[in-house]
Write a structure and sequence with these properties.
Number of strands: 0
Distance between the termini: 76 Å
Number of domains: 2
Shape: elongated
Largest sheet: none
Strand content: under 5%
Order of helices and strands: HHHHH
Length: 136
């Protein structure tokens, strides 16, 4: 009897200690939420096309499957080349910003008049880079 009274609480403790809410559980929750959103969107697209939701006795999963699985459209070569140019431009702006940041750090060790001149030159360059960053 004592063994049973000792084993039952230990069993309950170990059963209750299983980790809940870990990263795997959170990932499953996010995936389920994403699937529910896709399902909702497919139902809405069906309603827009057909004027009503699928009936209660219909196989609604078969009816909305064309809306649920869509293939990604193939991009024309022109769009791909434009994307590559934009990525290259963004990379160049980032590199220039890095060089200017290093110049700012080194200017702190320079003579005060030289540092002042450098910082006066860097202000308009920074504003131009910010405009370029917004454009890209």
């Amino acid at each position: 009897m004592r063994k049973i009274l000792l084993i039952i609480p230990l069993f309950l403790i170990f059963a209750g200690c299983s980790e809940k809410g870990g990263f795997a559980d959170q990932a499953k929750i996010v995936k389920a939420q994403s699937t529910m959103i896709k399902l909702r969107n497919a139902l809405e697209e069906y309603r827009i096309d057909k004027g009503a939701y699928p009936g209660p006795n219909s196989d609604w999963l078969k009816l909305i499957s064309p809306y649920f699985t869509k293939e990604n459209p193939v991009e024309p070569e022109q769009i791909t080349s434009i994307k590559l140019l934009l990525l290259e431009s963004e990379n160049i702006v980032t590199q220039i910003s890095g060089v200017l940041g290093e110049l700012r750090r080194k200017a702190l060790f320079a003579d005060s008049s030289l540092a002042s001149d450098i910082f006066q030159i860097l202000v308009p360059i920074d504003s131009i880079l910010n405009k370029m960053r917004l454009e890209v």
